[in-house]
Amino acid sequence: MSILFITHDLTIVRQISDRVCVMYNGKIKETGFTKEIFENPKDDYTKHLLSSEPKERDLYYDKNGRSILSGDNLNVTFNTKVKVSGRNKVLSINAVNKISLHIKEGETLGIVGESGSGKTTLGQTLLRLVDRESNTDVEGEIKFFDDRIDHLSRKQFKPFRNQMQIVFQDPYASLNPRLSVKQIIEEGLIVALNMKDKNERLNKIENIMNEVGLEPSSMLRFPHEFSGGQRQRIAIARSFVLNPKFVLLDEPTSALDLSIQKQILELLLQLQKNHKTTYIFISHDLRVIRSISHNLIVMKDGSILEQGVAKNILTNPQNDYTKNLIKSAFDIIY
Ligand SMILES: Nc1ncnc2c1ncn2[C@@H]1O[C@H](COP(=O)(O)OP(=O)(O)O)[C@@H](O)[C@H]1O
Ligand SMILES: [Mg+2]
Question: Is residue 58, in this structure, part of any structural domain at all?
Fold first, then answer.
């Protein structure tokens, strides 16, 4: 069978294709054998693309810093009602299986694992975003600095909520299409921070838009008028305007083209530096994870397979599953 495979993911292109066409602005910029194009790109755009691949870099954080967020023996089970041959049954999925972890101030903890391994559930559990009532069982202790937060009521939790924000994968789905950029960013200032002064809010909005690389004069425009990368900047501005201590980044670059992905990663690193923010960075992409994480958790089927300093795990994996992950991400097959 012949395959025409369309993607923005260079790792996959490298592994799957014999020949490649590089497109830009409706034109084929370069075409040829995969190995030749990756080893010796001729076109400027191809060169730019290849240089946009996330690289390893020296990341610094204070290893003696305080623990900002920790989970002890976290366990999450979703109980879903299903019908099996006319009878009601309950299907239980143990999405997070007795996981313990702690995150230090200023650190980025990467969480990597295949789709369905429990990454999102783990992140959202730590931020109290997984519903504890309904059909979900959540167990385990969660601490924000020295405070237990796992058993707090919604109202008791509110002051903590403002300090913990989240950025989702899909900047198309996560922004309300009926609100302007200004309204999107302003909402948190009103609801979470109860900021009554209009001018003070406007000032905050302008500052954060500048900081994330958006033109403040565009604040009255709506999300559909922006590109994917710009929308992710809006989502990042919405989180950072509250000056959070902690941000959960759930696959924030997975929907973006490589060169845009690079810009967003740079922005997140810059913001972390300026605000000393702590991150959990969830991704299925080891290259992205390597370029941003100090420490790393490898998950599969709700459990942690490997946990430690990112560099050590990536250069010296102990587990066969991790070894395979690394091989398919970095072992370039020509
Ligand atoms: N609200 C839910 N109800 C039932 N099952 C869920 C729910 N959310 C996630 N799951 C299941 O839990 C497992 C882990 O999902 P998730 O945390 O989204 O994984 P990942 O983010 O690694 O792709 C999957 O089997 C998924 O189908
Ligand atoms: Mg997920």
Answer: no
Backbone angles phi, psi at 171, to 5 degrees: -70, -5
Q: How far is the CA of 116 from the centre of ligand 2 (A)?
A: 7
Q: Please state, rounded to an integer, the average pLDDT across all residues of the chain.
A: 92
Q: What is the pLDDT of residues 124-161, one digit of tens each?
A: 999 999 976 678 999 999 999 999 999 998 889 988 99
Kindly state whether residues 39 and 93 are assigned to the same domain. Answer: no
Give yes or no for a contact between 121 and 303, defined as CB atoms under 8 angstroms apart.
no
The confidence score (pLDDT) of residue 331 equals 63
Q: Within a 13 Å sphere around the CA of 229, how many CA atoms are in the beta-carbon half?
A: 16
Would you list the DSSP string of 313-325?
HHHS--SHHHHHH
Residue 32 DSSP SS3: strand
Q: Indicate whether residue 121 lines ligand 1 (CB < 6 A).
A: yes
- Rounded-to-integer distance, Cα 166 and Cα 289, Å: 17
pLDDT reported for residue 334: 33
Is the CB of residue 117 below 6 angstroms from any atom belonging to ligand 1? yes
Ligand 1 contact, 280 CB (< 6 A): no
Please state the domain count of the chain.
Answer: 2
Residues of the domain holding 43:
10-51
Return the pLDDT at 53: 80
CATH code: domain of residue 226? 3.40.50.300
